[in-house]
């Protein structure tokens, strides 16, 4: 069976199917304008995505290098799997053993009425390999919600964004976490400072690269077993 791929050589100056070529001045304008608007609306995935694509080159390079050092990460980069309704049909996920990653992922999608096909495409990253790393990060976001038992509430999203910021180093993650955090209640902000930030830093220091997990091959595995292998520490229930 051929491996699914989204990044292909494009026509003209485009380097992959969804690439929009931009120069440094255009990237700077996009980064500035999108950052300003994303601060006002941190749940606008498109705005946050543009910030990530125009400011994350160095972080993406480090993410790519880390994946290349990991055997599973290298396999993911070679296969370039995609997460969507065609590659992971909801009916198939729902039929997996109770308590498995796949079953819990299906429950998460159904409960919150999420569609994995709605993840935005990558446009403004020039290097096709870095573009795939960004795409992979976006597509595993909901799986990380499941792995870390974080609901898609404001508090849950802020917690996951701080984890992503510590794990990836992407400036947009810190921007999203900060922008979302100012909308939390004072007591919730205090919990973020006391509990979430140290938790995110502990995970970043644990050595487990969350992007070098071939989630598609772990779907039938008990979620608790995967958490144990990745040394996942769940936040207290009051923070989830």
Give a short synopsis of this structure.
By secondary structure, the protein is mostly helical. It contains twelve helices and no strands.
Detailed description of the structure:
By secondary structure, the chain is an all-alpha fold. It has helices at 24-40, 45-55, 57-69, 71-79, 90-94, 101-112, 128-139, 141-147, 154-168, 171-181, 186-205, 223-229. Helix 1 (24-40) runs antiparallel to helix 2 and helix 6 packs across helix 8 (141-147). The longest helix has 20 residues, at 186-205.
Total strand segments: 0
* Major sheet attributes: none
- Taking the alpha carbons of the first and last residues, their distance comes to 40 Å
| Low-pLDDT ranges | 1-12
SSE topology sketch:
Elements: H1 24-40, H2 45-55, H3 57-69, H4 71-79, H5 90-94, H6 101-112, H7 128-139, H8 141-147, H9 154-168, H10 171-181, H11 186-205, H12 223-229
Helix pairs in contact: 1-2, 1-10, 2-10, 3-4, 3-7, 6-8, 9-10, 9-11
Give the tags.
about 240 residues; mainly alpha; disordered N terminus
């Amino acid at each position: 069976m051929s491996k699914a791929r989204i990044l292909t050589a494009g026509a003209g100056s485009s380097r992959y199917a969804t690439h929009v070529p931009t120069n440094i001045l255009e990237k700077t304008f996009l980064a500035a304008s999108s950052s300003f608007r994303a601060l006002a609306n941190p749940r606008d995935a498109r705005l946050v995505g543009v910030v990530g694509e125009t400011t994350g080159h160095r972080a993406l390079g480090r993410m790519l290098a880390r994946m290349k050092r990991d055997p599973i990460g290298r396999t993911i980069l070679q296969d370039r799997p995609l997460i969507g309704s065609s590659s992971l049909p909801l009916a198939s996920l729902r039929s997996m053993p109770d308590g498995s990653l796949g079953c819990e992922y299906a429950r998460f999608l159904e409960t919150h009425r999420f569609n994995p096909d709605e993840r935005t495409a990558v446009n403004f990253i020039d290097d096709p390999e870095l573009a795939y790393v960004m795409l992979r990060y976006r597509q595993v976001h909901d799986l990380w919600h499941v792995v870390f038992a974080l609901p898609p509430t404001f508090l849950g999203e802020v917690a996951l964004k701080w984890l992503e910021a510590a794990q990836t180093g992407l400036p947009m993650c810190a921007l999203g976490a900060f922008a979302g955090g100012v909308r939390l209640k004072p007591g919730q902000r205090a919990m973020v400072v006391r509990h979430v930030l140290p938790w995110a830093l502990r995970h970043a220091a644990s050595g487990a690269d969350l992007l070098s997990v071939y989630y598609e091959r772990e779907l039938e595995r008990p979620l608790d077993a995967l958490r144990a292998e990745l040394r996942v520490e769940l936040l207290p229930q009051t923070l989830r």
